[in-house]
Design goal:
The protein is α+β, with helices and mostly antiparallel strands and 315 residues long. The strands form 4 sheets. It has a 5-stranded mixed β-sheet. The longest helix has 27 residues. The chain starts with a helix and ends with a strand.
Length: 315
Amino acid sequence: MFWKFRWMLFLPLFLPAWGQPAPEFWKPAPRSSHLEILSPLGGWQTAGTAEIRLKLTDPTDPRPPLDSNLEYWERWQARWKAEEKALQDRIQEIMAQNLRPEPPARARLLAWIQGDPKGGAPVSADEITFIADWLKAREEAQGELNDAKGSREHSLLAFFNGEVQLWDLELNRERTFKLELIQGENRLEILDPSTGQSQLRTWWCEGSSPRLQVFARELGRRWTSWALQVLEPDGKMQADRRHFQKSHPAPGTYTIRWDAGAASRWWSDEDAAPRIVQVDVVLEGGTDRERRWRFETLVLPGTGPVTIGSFDVES
Protein backbone atom coordinates (compact mmCIF):
# COMPACT_ATOMS: atom_id res chain seq x y z
CA MET A 1 0.00 0.00 0.00
CA PHE A 2 3.03 2.26 0.23
CA TRP A 3 2.54 3.39 -3.41
CA LYS A 4 -0.77 4.96 -2.42
CA PHE A 5 1.00 7.48 -0.20
CA ARG A 6 4.57 7.83 -1.45
CA TRP A 7 3.56 10.50 -4.00
CA MET A 8 2.56 12.75 -1.07
CA LEU A 9 6.20 12.84 0.03
CA PHE A 10 7.05 14.78 -3.13
CA LEU A 11 4.15 17.23 -2.82
CA PRO A 12 6.22 19.93 -1.01
CA LEU A 13 8.62 19.94 -3.94
CA PHE A 14 5.82 21.20 -6.20
CA LEU A 15 4.36 23.81 -3.91
CA PRO A 16 7.00 26.58 -4.39
CA ALA A 17 6.52 26.46 -8.15
CA TRP A 18 2.78 26.79 -7.65
CA GLY A 19 3.11 29.83 -5.43
CA GLN A 20 2.53 32.13 -8.41
CA PRO A 21 0.16 31.42 -11.30
CA ALA A 22 1.66 30.69 -14.69
CA PRO A 23 1.65 33.68 -17.09
CA GLU A 24 -1.19 32.00 -19.02
CA PHE A 25 -3.38 32.01 -15.90
CA TRP A 26 -2.62 35.61 -14.92
CA LYS A 27 -5.55 38.05 -14.82
CA PRO A 28 -5.19 41.84 -15.05
CA ALA A 29 -6.53 44.03 -12.29
CA PRO A 30 -9.55 46.14 -13.21
CA ARG A 31 -8.55 49.35 -15.00
CA SER A 32 -4.86 48.39 -14.91
CA SER A 33 -4.36 48.83 -18.66
CA HIS A 34 -4.15 52.00 -20.73
CA LEU A 35 -4.82 52.51 -24.42
CA GLU A 36 -2.01 53.72 -26.65
CA ILE A 37 -2.42 55.06 -30.20
CA LEU A 38 0.96 54.32 -31.75
CA SER A 39 0.28 55.96 -35.13
CA PRO A 40 0.94 59.70 -35.41
CA LEU A 41 -2.38 61.39 -36.12
CA GLY A 42 -3.20 65.03 -36.50
CA GLY A 43 -2.44 67.92 -38.81
CA TRP A 44 -2.89 67.40 -42.56
CA GLN A 45 -2.86 64.21 -44.60
CA THR A 46 -3.24 63.56 -48.29
CA ALA A 47 -3.59 59.77 -48.41
CA GLY A 48 -7.03 58.22 -48.69
CA THR A 49 -6.25 55.50 -46.12
CA ALA A 50 -4.94 55.81 -42.57
CA GLU A 51 -3.49 52.89 -40.62
CA ILE A 52 -4.16 53.08 -36.89
CA ARG A 53 -1.84 51.05 -34.68
CA LEU A 54 -3.29 50.43 -31.21
CA LYS A 55 -2.08 48.71 -28.09
CA LEU A 56 -3.65 48.09 -24.68
CA THR A 57 -0.64 48.19 -22.37
CA ASP A 58 -0.35 46.67 -18.91
CA PRO A 59 3.25 46.50 -17.62
CA THR A 60 2.30 43.95 -14.94
CA ASP A 61 1.41 41.29 -17.53
CA PRO A 62 3.94 38.44 -17.05
CA ARG A 63 3.60 37.08 -20.59
CA PRO A 64 6.67 37.61 -22.77
CA PRO A 65 6.23 39.86 -25.82
CA LEU A 66 5.53 38.30 -29.20
CA ASP A 67 8.61 37.24 -31.15
CA SER A 68 8.42 39.33 -34.31
CA ASN A 69 10.94 37.03 -36.00
CA LEU A 70 8.45 34.16 -36.04
CA GLU A 71 5.81 33.64 -38.69
CA TYR A 72 2.15 33.73 -37.64
CA TRP A 73 1.85 29.93 -37.60
CA GLU A 74 5.02 29.58 -35.53
CA ARG A 75 3.75 32.15 -33.02
CA TRP A 76 0.44 30.29 -32.79
CA GLN A 77 2.23 26.99 -32.16
CA ALA A 78 4.47 28.51 -29.48
CA ARG A 79 1.46 30.01 -27.75
CA TRP A 80 -0.48 26.74 -27.91
CA LYS A 81 2.44 24.78 -26.43
CA ALA A 82 2.84 27.28 -23.58
CA GLU A 83 -0.89 27.14 -22.79
CA GLU A 84 -0.93 23.35 -22.90
CA LYS A 85 2.04 23.11 -20.51
CA ALA A 86 0.43 25.60 -18.12
CA LEU A 87 -2.83 23.63 -18.33
CA GLN A 88 -1.11 20.33 -17.48
CA ASP A 89 0.73 21.95 -14.55
CA ARG A 90 -2.53 23.36 -13.22
CA ILE A 91 -4.24 19.96 -13.53
CA GLN A 92 -1.42 18.40 -11.54
CA GLU A 93 -1.80 21.08 -8.89
CA ILE A 94 -5.55 20.49 -8.57
CA MET A 95 -4.99 16.73 -8.40
CA ALA A 96 -2.44 17.17 -5.61
CA GLN A 97 -4.90 19.32 -3.64
CA ASN A 98 -7.37 16.41 -3.67
CA LEU A 99 -4.92 14.42 -1.51
CA ARG A 100 -6.08 11.23 -3.22
CA PRO A 101 -3.45 8.60 -4.11
CA GLU A 102 -2.66 8.12 -7.78
CA PRO A 103 -2.47 4.60 -9.24
CA PRO A 104 0.84 3.19 -10.54
CA ALA A 105 -0.69 3.03 -14.05
CA ARG A 106 -1.13 6.81 -14.23
CA ALA A 107 0.75 7.16 -17.54
CA ARG A 108 -1.27 4.34 -19.13
CA LEU A 109 -4.57 5.85 -18.00
CA LEU A 110 -3.70 9.37 -19.21
CA ALA A 111 -2.72 7.94 -22.59
CA TRP A 112 -6.07 6.13 -22.74
CA ILE A 113 -7.99 9.32 -21.87
CA GLN A 114 -6.21 11.23 -24.66
CA GLY A 115 -6.86 8.50 -27.25
CA ASP A 116 -3.28 7.21 -27.41
CA PRO A 117 -3.22 3.57 -28.60
CA LYS A 118 -0.48 2.89 -26.04
CA GLY A 119 -2.97 3.57 -23.26
CA GLY A 120 -5.27 1.17 -21.49
CA ALA A 121 -8.73 1.34 -19.96
CA PRO A 122 -9.18 1.34 -16.16
CA VAL A 123 -9.35 -2.10 -14.55
CA SER A 124 -9.99 -1.21 -10.90
CA ALA A 125 -12.08 1.11 -8.77
CA ASP A 126 -9.01 3.20 -7.89
CA GLU A 127 -8.22 3.71 -11.57
CA ILE A 128 -11.80 4.68 -12.38
CA THR A 129 -11.72 7.20 -9.52
CA PHE A 130 -8.42 8.62 -10.81
CA ILE A 131 -9.88 9.14 -14.29
CA ALA A 132 -12.94 10.87 -12.85
CA ASP A 133 -10.72 13.15 -10.72
CA TRP A 134 -8.46 13.94 -13.66
CA LEU A 135 -11.33 14.84 -15.99
CA LYS A 136 -12.86 17.06 -13.32
CA ALA A 137 -9.49 18.75 -12.72
CA ARG A 138 -9.00 19.33 -16.45
CA GLU A 139 -12.45 20.90 -16.75
CA GLU A 140 -11.70 23.20 -13.82
CA ALA A 141 -8.26 24.15 -15.18
CA GLN A 142 -9.61 24.77 -18.69
CA GLY A 143 -12.30 27.04 -17.25
CA GLU A 144 -9.67 29.03 -15.35
CA LEU A 145 -7.54 29.33 -18.48
CA ASN A 146 -10.50 30.51 -20.57
CA ASP A 147 -11.36 33.10 -17.93
CA ALA A 148 -7.77 34.36 -17.87
CA LYS A 149 -7.64 34.61 -21.67
CA GLY A 150 -10.97 36.41 -21.71
CA SER A 151 -9.78 38.93 -19.12
CA ARG A 152 -6.99 39.99 -21.51
CA GLU A 153 -9.40 40.65 -24.39
CA HIS A 154 -11.14 43.99 -24.86
CA SER A 155 -13.75 45.08 -27.39
CA LEU A 156 -13.31 48.76 -28.17
CA LEU A 157 -15.86 51.08 -29.74
CA ALA A 158 -14.44 53.25 -32.51
CA PHE A 159 -16.48 56.25 -33.66
CA PHE A 160 -15.08 57.46 -36.97
CA ASN A 161 -16.80 60.21 -38.95
CA GLY A 162 -20.21 59.17 -37.65
CA GLU A 163 -19.67 55.43 -38.09
CA VAL A 164 -19.42 52.97 -35.21
CA GLN A 165 -16.97 50.08 -35.43
CA LEU A 166 -16.10 47.29 -33.00
CA TRP A 167 -12.36 46.69 -32.62
CA ASP A 168 -10.98 43.69 -30.70
CA LEU A 169 -7.66 44.03 -28.89
CA GLU A 170 -5.66 41.69 -26.69
CA LEU A 171 -3.60 43.02 -23.81
CA ASN A 172 -0.03 43.93 -24.83
CA ARG A 173 -0.62 42.75 -28.40
CA GLU A 174 -0.46 45.45 -31.06
CA ARG A 175 -3.07 45.52 -33.84
CA THR A 176 -3.51 47.68 -36.93
CA PHE A 177 -6.84 48.95 -38.23
CA LYS A 178 -7.48 50.77 -41.50
CA LEU A 179 -9.63 53.86 -41.90
CA GLU A 180 -10.79 55.36 -45.18
CA LEU A 181 -10.46 59.13 -44.92
CA ILE A 182 -12.88 61.71 -46.22
CA GLN A 183 -11.99 65.10 -47.61
CA GLY A 184 -11.91 67.71 -44.87
CA GLU A 185 -11.96 66.98 -41.14
CA ASN A 186 -11.69 63.39 -39.89
CA ARG A 187 -12.64 62.59 -36.31
CA LEU A 188 -11.79 59.37 -34.45
CA GLU A 189 -12.84 58.57 -30.89
CA ILE A 190 -11.97 55.22 -29.28
CA LEU A 191 -13.74 54.02 -26.14
CA ASP A 192 -12.90 51.03 -23.97
CA PRO A 193 -16.25 50.30 -22.23
CA SER A 194 -14.61 47.95 -19.69
CA THR A 195 -12.38 50.71 -18.27
CA GLY A 196 -14.09 53.91 -19.39
CA GLN A 197 -10.89 55.11 -21.07
CA SER A 198 -11.17 57.02 -24.34
CA GLN A 199 -8.90 58.63 -26.91
CA LEU A 200 -9.88 61.37 -29.36
CA ARG A 201 -8.02 62.45 -32.50
CA THR A 202 -8.96 64.85 -35.30
CA TRP A 203 -7.04 65.59 -38.48
CA TRP A 204 -7.59 66.99 -41.97
CA CYS A 205 -7.31 65.34 -45.36
CA GLU A 206 -6.87 67.59 -48.37
CA GLY A 207 -7.06 64.93 -51.08
CA SER A 208 -10.32 63.99 -52.73
CA SER A 209 -12.03 60.85 -51.45
CA PRO A 210 -13.42 58.10 -53.69
CA ARG A 211 -17.02 58.87 -54.56
CA LEU A 212 -18.23 55.41 -53.44
CA GLN A 213 -16.92 53.48 -50.45
CA VAL A 214 -18.18 50.18 -49.01
CA PHE A 215 -16.93 48.92 -45.63
CA ALA A 216 -17.60 45.45 -44.17
CA ARG A 217 -16.99 44.13 -40.67
CA GLU A 218 -17.85 41.06 -38.62
CA LEU A 219 -19.12 41.90 -35.15
CA GLY A 220 -17.54 40.13 -32.20
CA ARG A 221 -15.10 37.99 -34.19
CA ARG A 222 -11.34 38.30 -34.22
CA TRP A 223 -10.79 36.74 -37.66
CA THR A 224 -12.81 37.41 -40.81
CA SER A 225 -14.63 34.38 -42.21
CA TRP A 226 -14.19 35.21 -45.89
CA ALA A 227 -14.70 38.21 -48.21
CA LEU A 228 -16.89 41.12 -49.25
CA GLN A 229 -18.27 41.06 -52.80
CA VAL A 230 -19.81 43.97 -54.73
CA LEU A 231 -21.66 43.27 -57.98
CA GLU A 232 -21.55 46.37 -60.21
CA PRO A 233 -24.35 47.38 -62.61
CA ASP A 234 -22.41 46.02 -65.62
CA GLY A 235 -22.17 42.58 -63.99
CA LYS A 236 -18.54 42.85 -62.92
CA MET A 237 -17.83 41.34 -59.49
CA GLN A 238 -15.39 43.08 -57.13
CA ALA A 239 -14.06 41.19 -54.09
CA ASP A 240 -12.02 42.27 -51.09
CA ARG A 241 -11.64 41.22 -47.48
CA ARG A 242 -13.12 44.33 -45.94
CA HIS A 243 -13.30 47.33 -48.26
CA PHE A 244 -14.38 48.37 -51.76
CA GLN A 245 -14.09 51.85 -53.26
CA LYS A 246 -14.74 53.46 -56.62
CA SER A 247 -13.66 56.94 -57.66
CA HIS A 248 -16.18 57.16 -60.54
CA PRO A 249 -18.91 54.58 -59.94
CA ALA A 250 -21.21 53.87 -62.87
CA PRO A 251 -24.87 54.71 -62.27
CA GLY A 252 -27.20 51.81 -61.53
CA THR A 253 -27.88 49.17 -58.88
CA TYR A 254 -25.03 47.66 -56.83
CA THR A 255 -25.54 44.35 -55.01
CA ILE A 256 -23.60 43.52 -51.83
CA ARG A 257 -22.74 39.93 -51.03
CA TRP A 258 -20.62 38.16 -48.43
CA ASP A 259 -18.75 35.07 -49.57
CA ALA A 260 -18.81 32.76 -46.53
CA GLY A 261 -16.49 30.30 -48.26
CA ALA A 262 -16.43 26.51 -47.92
CA ALA A 263 -16.29 24.62 -44.64
CA SER A 264 -12.94 23.15 -43.61
CA ARG A 265 -12.10 20.40 -41.13
CA TRP A 266 -9.23 22.59 -39.91
CA TRP A 267 -11.57 25.30 -38.60
CA SER A 268 -11.71 26.04 -34.92
CA ASP A 269 -15.01 26.55 -33.08
CA GLU A 270 -14.60 30.31 -33.58
CA ASP A 271 -14.00 29.88 -37.31
CA ALA A 272 -17.24 27.91 -37.73
CA ALA A 273 -19.42 30.03 -35.42
CA PRO A 274 -22.22 32.17 -36.92
CA ARG A 275 -21.40 35.85 -37.05
CA ILE A 276 -23.13 39.13 -37.84
CA VAL A 277 -21.79 40.87 -40.95
CA GLN A 278 -22.35 44.63 -41.08
CA VAL A 279 -21.79 46.66 -44.24
CA ASP A 280 -21.74 50.46 -44.50
CA VAL A 281 -22.00 52.26 -47.84
CA VAL A 282 -20.95 55.92 -48.19
CA LEU A 283 -21.64 57.86 -51.37
CA GLU A 284 -20.17 61.36 -51.81
CA GLY A 285 -18.75 61.24 -48.28
CA GLY A 286 -17.85 64.57 -46.70
CA THR A 287 -19.95 66.61 -49.13
CA ASP A 288 -23.42 68.11 -49.01
CA ARG A 289 -24.58 65.28 -51.31
CA GLU A 290 -23.53 62.55 -48.89
CA ARG A 291 -25.72 59.45 -48.70
CA ARG A 292 -25.31 56.43 -46.43
CA TRP A 293 -26.73 52.91 -46.22
CA ARG A 294 -26.20 50.22 -43.58
CA PHE A 295 -26.88 46.50 -44.11
CA GLU A 296 -26.67 43.74 -41.53
CA THR A 297 -27.22 40.00 -41.70
CA LEU A 298 -26.38 36.78 -39.86
CA VAL A 299 -23.90 34.61 -41.79
CA LEU A 300 -22.95 30.97 -41.25
CA PRO A 301 -19.35 30.32 -42.42
CA GLY A 302 -19.03 27.64 -45.07
CA THR A 303 -22.30 28.40 -46.86
CA GLY A 304 -20.85 30.26 -49.85
CA PRO A 305 -22.04 33.65 -51.19
CA VAL A 306 -24.85 35.35 -49.25
CA THR A 307 -26.69 38.41 -50.61
CA ILE A 308 -26.86 41.20 -48.02
CA GLY A 309 -28.57 44.05 -49.89
CA SER A 310 -28.44 46.52 -52.74
CA PHE A 311 -28.31 50.29 -53.35
CA ASP A 312 -28.58 52.67 -56.29
CA VAL A 313 -26.03 55.20 -57.54
CA GLU A 314 -27.39 58.05 -59.61
CA SER A 315 -25.48 59.64 -62.45
